[in-house]
Amino acid sequence: MSEATPMLEVRGLRTQFGTGAGAVRAVNGVDLAINPGEVLGIVGESGCGKTVLALSILRLIDAPGRIVAGQVLFEGTDVLAMRPRALTALRGRDIAMIFQQPKASLDPLMRIGSQIAEPLRLRGGRSRAEAWREAVELLGAVGIPNPEEKARAYPHEISGGQAQRVMIAIALALRPRLLIADEPTTALDVTVQAQILELLRERCRVLGTALVLVTHDIGVVAQMADRVAVMYAGRVVENGKVADILGQPAHPYTRGLLRSAPVMGAVQARLREIPGGIPDLTRPLSGCAFAPRCEARQQAGAARCDSQAPPSFLPRAGWQARCWLQAGAPQAQPAPEAWA
Ligand SMILES: Nc1ncnc2c1ncn2[C@@H]1O[C@H](COP(=O)(O)OP(=O)(O)OP(=O)(O)O)[C@@H](O)[C@H]1O
Ligand code: SF4
Ligand SMILES: [Mg+2]
């Protein structure tokens, strides 16, 4: 498959939660594409919609949440229109997901070897003995020492870092085409985080699995990803190659994230947080969602920033930014509707 035909394409995706205070527009018109074998980082502050987007891709949104519009095309087939059987086959076989809390995702009453062997047997057609042997091999491949012995352990007998390695082994056992990892290392200490991220990248590279890595840490994106989608208030505000965007961000929000990121190995006296907080997602906004916090608002034309949601502009090929500062560049798509 070439770059021109992505493996996964998200088009105009909107997911909302009905609450007493009104509908929370958690994902509010997201367009994304993921190519085979690439690593896409999805980054943004807490509450900007990263997890809801990841769950929406696999249709794992529960009530009061609802996907209200859009398409999720996996190799051309719309996941949102799939029948239950096709959806079950897709999850785990074609697309796997790793959640933030590894221990909570493991069954406390089942040996870890069995938790890896089970999908190999049930969905991969292996015999019981083959599945167990492969599970032990997979534990070795994710860096668990004495895998034969550890396969017999229960989740409470292993560390948080080892549990995350087990989750990676489970997620990749059936060699999915795409792995979505939602903050896979935030519960771990810094040294273990780096090891797990390296393992994740290495395993995906060996298997040719594309990786969507959800994180609030732009430093992780810099270290891991080929492309990045920066999310703010339920939308992708900047999207393109990591080298382009982190080198010369076009969107003021991306600049703010970079300034507030700790620099690896450097002692920073004080990080510059982006002042203010994310907007109330139940309230319709007519202008740019970032306007109340944006230091470039005057420069771009405050009246327009406050009254018109910016469309996606293309500062360069393969690079999109939703900001009126880029109004001189071609438009990637029609202006989005005002927040309905
Ligand atoms: N079950 C729910 N009911 C109501 N609102 C929800 C629900 N789940 C998520 N939301 C809202 O959707 C928005 C996006 O949440 P989401 O969990 O996707 O953020 P996030 O970017 O993953 O944040 P974090 O970095 O903290 O994980 C938030 O405003 C959140 O409050
Ligand atoms: S559109 Fe205006 S307010 Fe929004 S990020 Fe760009 S400059 Fe800032
Ligand atoms: Mg989240």
From TrEMBL:
<dbReference type="InterPro" id="IPR003593">
    <property type="entry name" value="AAA+_ATPase"/>
</dbReference>
<dbReference type="InterPro" id="IPR027417">
    <property type="entry name" value="P-loop_NTPase"/>
</dbReference>
<keyword id="KW-0813">Transport</keyword>
<dbReference type="GO" id="GO:0005524">
    <property type="term" value="F:ATP binding"/>
</dbReference>
<dbReference type="InterPro" id="IPR013563">
    <property type="entry name" value="Oligopep_ABC_C"/>
</dbReference>
<dbReference type="Pfam" id="PF00005">
    <property type="entry name" value="ABC_tran"/>
</dbReference>
<keyword id="KW-0067">ATP-binding</keyword>
<dbReference type="InterPro" id="IPR017871">
    <property type="entry name" value="ABC_transporter-like_CS"/>
</dbReference>
<protein>
    <submittedName>
        <fullName>ABC transporter ATP-binding protein</fullName>
    </submittedName>
</protein>
<comment type="similarity">
    <text>Belongs to the ABC transporter superfamily.</text>
</comment>
<keyword id="KW-0472">Membrane</keyword>
<keyword id="KW-1003">Cell membrane</keyword>
<dbReference type="Pfam" id="PF08352">
    <property type="entry name" value="oligo_HPY"/>
</dbReference>
<dbReference type="InterPro" id="IPR050388">
    <property type="entry name" value="ABC_Ni/Peptide_Import"/>
</dbReference>
<dbReference type="InterPro" id="IPR003439">
    <property type="entry name" value="ABC_transporter-like_ATP-bd"/>
</dbReference>
<keyword id="KW-0547">Nucleotide-binding</keyword>
<feature type="domain" description="ABC transporter">
    <location>
        <begin position="8"/>
        <end position="258"/>
    </location>
</feature>
